């Protein structure tokens, strides 16, 4: 369900990062959320982008997001950066693929670059609850990192800035952090894919840790993957539709007036998750875990395809 909002404040947080505070534009209260949640913002016709919520439920009448302008992006972030106070937008209700565990021990929060956005909200929530955490903030330089002084003010020595490290020092740094983790600790990472992959590899060596990941952009070159044709059978109507080479399931279903909710269309937000009743998906998302992929009982129909000739979907 979409919500109408108005931008009430825009703030430059770093050379390429602006933050936006959104409030309801029609006097209906905004839907609530938990730390780690994101909203999908309709930036323009056909352009929807997912942005994590920075604020926590102490300000339930606002959504606070931050947007990094991606020089080689697909235009959504650049358009967001042109918007000012008073601009009206549509946003989805918040969705959360990255919740804080419950119950949890100590939380080790790791943010890379603009990946600070969900991590910031989680840290606020943990600080307010008086729960133990440490926040490791990695960025190319301090100058390009958003919210540094606010994070310092709010979290003091729980903030561990790690700016300007090259790849091998990032690996050493994270290795030391995770090597010191204790039984029951939870590790949350949001950042670019190489950082997430590194965190996943390092965490696998420490069984004391429970790992939680949030991807904020799809780095996989989906266009480089094979895209052969297959058929999709829709269990509710019995219709069978051919998905040709080079086209996504959602696009072809839309041609047949079958609408599936989507947002990122990159396999990262979960809006299009669909139950698989038969067949084996060729998973290409960055959302589901390895275990969820292996179960083959759900798939992101915006990017994932089929290994066999037929998929039966709960549509
Ligand atoms: S639309 Fe976001 S995962 Fe499919």
Structural description of this entry:
The chain folds into three domains: 2-92, Beta Barrel (Elongation Factor Tu (Ef-tu), domain 3), CATH 2.40.30; 107-215, Nucleotide-binding domain of ferredoxin-NADP reductase (FNR) module (Rossmann fold); 222-313, Ubiquitin-like (UB roll) (Roll), CATH 3.10.20.30. It has seven helices and 18 strands. A six-stranded antiparallel beta sheet has the order 4-3-6-1-2-5. The chain has a five-stranded parallel beta sheet with strand order 9-8-7-10-11, with helices on both faces. It is globular, with a radius of gyration of 20 Å. The longest helix has 14 residues, at 116-129. With 315 residues, the protein is α/β, with parallel strands linked by helices. It is 21% helix and 32% strand. FE2/S2 (inorganic) cluster binds at residues 262-265, 267-272, 285, 287, 300, 302.
CATH class identity of the largest domain? Alpha Beta
Beta-strand percentage? 25-35%
Residue stretches low in confidence (pLDDT < 50, at least 5 long) are 218-224
Q: Would you identify the CATH H-level superfamily of the largest domain?
A: Nucleotide-binding domain of ferredoxin-NADP reductase (FNR) module
User: On the 0-100 scale, what is the average pLDDT?
Assistant: 89
Summed up, the domain count is: 3
Q: What is bound: which ligands?
A: FE2/S2 (inorganic) cluster
Total of DSSP H or I helical runs spanning 4+ residues: 7
Q: How is the largest sheet built, in terms of strand order?
A: 4-3-6-1-2-5
Gyration radius, in Å: 20 Å
Overall CATH architecture of the largest domain = 3-Layer(aba) Sandwich
Question: Biggest sheet: strands, sense, closure?
Answer: 6 strands, antiparallel
């Amino acid at each position: 369900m979409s919500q109408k909002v108005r931008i009430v404040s825009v703030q430059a947080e770093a050379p390429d990062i602006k933050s936006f505070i959104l409030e309801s534009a029609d006097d209906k209260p905004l839907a609530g959320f938990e730390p780690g949640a994101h909203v999908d913002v309709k930036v323009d016709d056909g352009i929807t982008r997912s942005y994590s919520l920075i604020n926590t439920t102490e300000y339930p009448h606002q959504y606070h997001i931050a947007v990094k302008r991606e020089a080689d992006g697909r235009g959504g972030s650049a358009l967001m950066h042109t918007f000012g106070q008073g601009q009206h937008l549509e946003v989805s209700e918040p969705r959360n693929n990255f919740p804080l565990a419950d119950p949890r021990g100590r939380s080790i929060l790791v943010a890379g670059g603009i990946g600070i956005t969900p991590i910031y909200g989680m840290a606020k929530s943990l600080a307010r609850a008086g729960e133990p955490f440490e926040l490791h903030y990695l960025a190319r330089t301090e100058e390009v990192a958003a919210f540094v002084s606010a994070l310092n003010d709010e979290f003091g020595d729980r903030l561990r800035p790690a700016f300007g490290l090259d790849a091998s020092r990032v690996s050493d740094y994270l290795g030391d952090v995770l090597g010191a983790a204790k039984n029951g600790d939870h590790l949350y990472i949001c950042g670019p894919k190489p950082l997430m992959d590194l965190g996943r590899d390092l965490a696998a060596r420490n069984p004391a840790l429970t790992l939680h990941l949030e991807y904020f952009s799809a780095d996989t070159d989906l266009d480089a993957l094979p895209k052969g044709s297959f058929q999709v059978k829709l269990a509710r109507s019995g219709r069978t539709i051919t998905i040709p080479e080079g086209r996504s399931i959602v696009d072809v279903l839309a041609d047949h007036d079958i609408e599936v909710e989507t947002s990122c269309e990159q396999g990262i937000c979960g809006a299009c998750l669909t139950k698989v009743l038969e067949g084996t998906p060729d998973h290409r998302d960055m959302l589901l875990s390895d275990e969820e992929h292996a179960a083959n009982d759900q798939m992101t129909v915006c990017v994932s395809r089929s290994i066999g000739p037929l998929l039966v979907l709960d549509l």
